[in-house]
Amino acid sequence: MSSFHRDTWVEVDLDCIYENVRALQRHVTEGVVVITVVKANAYGHGDAQVAKVALEAGAKYLAVSFLDEAMSLRKQGITAPILVLGASRVSDLPLAAKEKITLTVFQKEWVEEAVSAYDDAQLETVNLHLKLDTGMGRIGVRTKEEVAHIMKLTEKAPHLQMEGVYTHFATADELQSQYVEQQFKRFDVMLDEITKHYNIPLVHCGNSATTLRFPTRIFNAVRVGIAMYGLTPSPEMEPTLPFPLKEAFSLHTKLVHVKKLSIGESVSYGATYTTKEEEWVGTVPVGYADGWIRKLQGMDVLVDGKPAPIIGRICMDQFMVKLPYELPIGTKVTLIGKQGDKQISSNDVAAKLETINYEVPCMISYRVPRMFWRNKNIIEVRNYLQDKPVE
Ligand SMILES: Cc1ncc(COP(=O)(O)O)c(C=O)c1O
Fold it and tell me: pLDDT tens for residues 62-119?
């Protein structure tokens, strides 16, 4: 267990993640493969720790964005299948083969290059999932002709195993369903073309929103991210949730300095805040380099179970809070999470920042250590600043 030497830390409640994965698996029925999306350090929650608990809860596959993220999981002892959702270099095929990492195929040029660069004597088998672009406009094959060409090429290359086919929906979190229905339809048409000639074991289209809203239309696998972390994909979906989600991420710090300011004194860069009366002001050691960005000036934090506003500009490593009354140095301050009956959710931070809740745990930087709770105990602490350099 690594330790840390600053009074700011994230807590990740792995029990919440376990229960969210169990609930999602029940929701889609037992036969459906749950692929848990742990890219971006598991949306800021800790990649290997989340992966382990998700697998314990029944997930069968993991997904990340690029090969280095998959390698990070392998280095931390995760042996489960991992799908890379983004583009990988053809020159990294031998590494993917060696580490048993599944890659996404998203254009014919990639397959042509792979087939001409390696034959089955040079490469162990690599599993591939074919990505179809049915309306997201990001990566993916868009025509039946290109699909047919890719399938023919891979059929002749036994070291390239087409294990899956998938698509990604752009608007599944919006209750107006017209666009997602159009994407479902395009996926069906392209799938028909493939399944006439080939048998591909895994078919998936469901992110969290699709999985929660259309559990009977998700084929035989789903890729769930945000819901596993206990957050709803969009505010408009909140009233439609089929079961409650448990938010796993919280962020805390402590008062490191407390003082009484007289009327008319200013606080922080730019002197943008001036006291209107005698005020108790606390300083906490967290700032924009930790991901608590300057736009959060004015947001409440929780101190002694009460909301307290951030006053003055947020600095790189510190900010100031107007305290409800004098409080001792060392008092816990919660930026995201619960104190007593009060809660600040990642949703509240997202609303203040006019962004989506996904961004909130992702933006809490590597400077903030993660503390992992399981069965009401701290089972691990990860201080990314103490990690050994990767060779
Ligand atoms: C291709 C793909 N699948 C699945 C997911 C998971 O989405 P969500 O977090 O909404 O469940 C993502 C996340 O962005 C993604 O890019």
Answer: 999 999 999 999 999 999 999 999 999 999 999 999 999 999 999 999 999 999 998 8
Residue 187 in tokens: 């996926």
Active site residue 39: yes
Q: How far apart are CA 81 and CA 340, in angstroms?
A: 41
CA distance 391 to 386: 15
Of 98, 269, 295, 342, catalytic: 269
Best residue for ligand 1 mutational test, from 28, 104, 223 (most atoms within 8 Å of Cβ): 223
Residue 237 is assigned to a structural domain of this protein: no
224 Cα nearest atom in ligand 1: 11
Instruction: Assign residue 293 the CATH number of its domain.
Output: 2.40.37.10
Residue range(s) defining the domain that contains residue 135: 14-230
Which of 18, 39, 43, 358 is catalytic? The answer is: 39
Pick the last residue of a domain from 230, 257, 275. Answer: 230
Tokens of 303: 């101190």
184 domain residue, yes or no: yes
